[in-house]
Amino acid sequence: MRIIILLAGLLLGSASSLFAQVPASSLAPAPATLTGPQVVQRSIAYHDPQGRWPALRQRLHFTTTNATGKESRFEVELDNPGGYFCYISHPEGHEVIKAVVNGQEVLLLDGRADLTEAERKQYRLAPGIGNFMRNYYTYLYGLPMKLQDAGTQILADAAPKDLLGQTYTTARVNYEPAIGQDSWTFYFNPRTFALQAYQFYHNHTPSEGEYIMLQDEILVEGVRIPKQRKWYLNKDQSFLATDLLLRAEPLTTRRL
């Protein structure tokens, strides 16, 4: 599992060569005249034109495949207005739940909360992991809408940049110190403003962090959510994993 408050990329050489700034003249003129906050607002209008993300109640089905080819399946139950989150997986035939219910973290192994230290370590059920998973999935799958959250600092500059041979409109984002120390760059289609990639740096260091490439979309109650995310390390361009959103369905019943 990748750590979420930090993510990004290089693929051929240094960060400056992969994500090189390109002349504004190579882009359509409209994006080059926008500020970072304006770019983000246009992307939100593309992904969530009816403002439905805050009211979303869905069960999302995923697979994740790591660098060795091992595939895992899991589900995420989201009730955004109710503040409910539940991550459900079945490693080695066991049911593992990492959830937040009514503001309280719930960690269960086969329905049990009284876990040994060995079980907590084996199934990654240390205290705090439920809150972490909620923040992780609601942030990543709520982008770019989550860039409206308090403490988000969207820089004014929205310079076009080249990434893997494609030119994107970008927005750079920092967070207030109490939220995170990482710096992010978001890459948008210069015509539709669809979010297509993002990267983060730890402590503003280009060799640290990860980058994520997005592909395809699933329409979920009017919200365009990226279907595939591929993760890579900045420092050596190593492939980490692919997350695939298989399908979504209305959350009519909850696991907890």
Automatic annotation (TrEMBL):
InterPro entries: DUF6503. It holds the Pfam family DUF6503. Residues 1-20 form the signal peptide. Keywords: Signal. The keyword Signal applies. This is Uncharacterized protein. It comes from Hymenobacter glacialis.
